[in-house]
Structure formats: C-alpha cells, structure tokens
Amino acid sequence: MAKGARTRGRSAPRRWLWRLAALAALFGLAFAAWLWWDMRDWRPDPGAYPEQGALVPAGAAPVRFETLKAIGAQFVYLPLEPGAGREAPGGFADRFAAARRAGLQVGVLLPFDPCLGADAQSGIFAQMVPRDAGLLPPAIGLQSLAEGCDPKVSDAAVESELMTLINQIELHAGKPAILKLSPAFQDRHRTATALARDLWLARDRARPDYAGRPWLLWSANSARVTEAGEEPVEWVVVQK
C-alpha cells in the first residue's frame, strides 16, 4: 500500500506537467491561427507610412486595380516574367494598361535570372516597357541563386551580368533602378554593399534590416488578401 501511494504521488506532478504542456501547445496554436488570420489583410499604419502600394502576382488572373486604389494603394508594381511578349490576354500588357486607367502610379519589376544573360533579359524589358518618364523607377528582383544553372555560372559571372543588366535597364528607363533584394541573395553576393542603388526589402510585419543599410521600399505583407482579386498581393510601403 505504501509503495502504491508513493507511485501515485510521483505520477501526479507528471500529469500536471503534461496538462500544462498541452495547454501551452493549445495557446500556441491559437496564437498562430490568430496571427495568420490577422496577417491576411494587415498593412502598416498609413500614418507612419503614407505612401503604400502593391506588387501584384504574375499571371493572367483578373486584378481589379480600381479596388486596389480604393483600399489604399497609390502605386502598383507589375512583374515582367520571361515570355511576356507572347502572353495570353489578361497578362502583363493588359494589366499595365488597366493599372494606368485606374489612376495608379505604375512600375515594372523584372525578376533577375542568374542563368540567363543580361542582353536577353533587358531585351524583354525594352520590348514590353515603354520609355515613359511618368513610370516609377524600374525594379530588379534579386531572389534566385545560380545553383540550378546548367551550365554552371560562377558568382563573379552572376554579379557581372547583373551590373550589365542594371545599366541596360537604367538606360532604357532613364532613371536609377531599385533592387528588390532577398536575404539569400544578399548573403551570397553582398549586393547592398557592392551596389549603390535604392533597396526594396521584404519581411512580414517586422521592419527588415538584413541589408545593413536603409531601404526605400518594404514588402510588409507578402500575401495580403484583398477584394481586388482572387490571389493575394504583396503589400509595399515607402520609407519616408
């Protein structure tokens, strides 16, 4: 009897520990669910960031640019993917025209492909983007690394082609480019230190600091759900 009582005495604290652990896990799941729901339509305070806009996803899914403007977007960036010149209706060219009709400031983002030469990429940009001083500065997306390139491409070659691409894009646009820089690309190439261009950084909800110097644009919500379309947009604010 005494032995059984001692065993029950030792097991009681264990049960309480399991219960506390389960309760903590439940609170953690509830907080994660709340954070996910809250982030669906979260954006930074317009009082702190009065200039706000969106990067719409690539593709031909309908986007209601008038709705984007109504919910607080003053500008929009449109991604220009390879093959844009042969796209179906509703793609880049149609979105470009629709965004301008809606009264939004429009810019173009060209995602940099480290496996493709600068001439081919700048050719797509020059073909699809008009020379227009009213456009926002062009942006170059620096996210993809060269690991999957065939044939292999050295880091030095990537950096050389990127510099060539920047010069070609700026010559066409007539204004300096903005570099949309991912943490992985920055870690690999130290682009923020090597190139004196305005930066566009990304981090959900928290101000990004991985470039080591000030930024101009911040993607504060990578998947903001809006009434403007079925697909989320990347919500972007401008540093004062």
Question: Could you name the key traits of this structure?
Answer:
240 residues; alpha/beta; TIM Barrel; 2 domains; eight-stranded mixed barrel; 7 helices; 8 strands; 18% strand
Structure write-up:
With 240 residues, the chain is of the alpha/beta class. 40% of the residues lie in helices and 18% in strands. The protein folds into two domains: 39 residues; 193 residues, TIM Barrel. Strand 7 and strand 8 form a beta hairpin. Helix 4 packs parallel to helix 5. It is globular, with a radius of gyration of 24 Å.
CATH superfamily descriptor of the largest domain: Glycosidases
Structural class: alpha/beta
Helix content: 25-40%
Kindly provide the name of the CATH class of the largest domain. Answer: Alpha Beta
Uncertain residue segments: 27-37
| Whole-number total of structural domains | 2
In short:
This protein is of the alpha/beta class and 240 residues long.
Spell out the blueprint of helices and strands.
Elements: H1 2-39, E1 52-55, H2 65-70, E2 75-79, H3 92-101, E3 105-111, H4 118-128, E4 139-142, H5 155-173, E5 178-181, H6 183-189, H7 191-194, E6 198-202, E7 217-224, E8 233-238
Parallel strand pairs: 1-2, 2-3, 3-4, 4-5, 5-6, 6-7
Antiparallel strand pairs: 1-8, 7-8
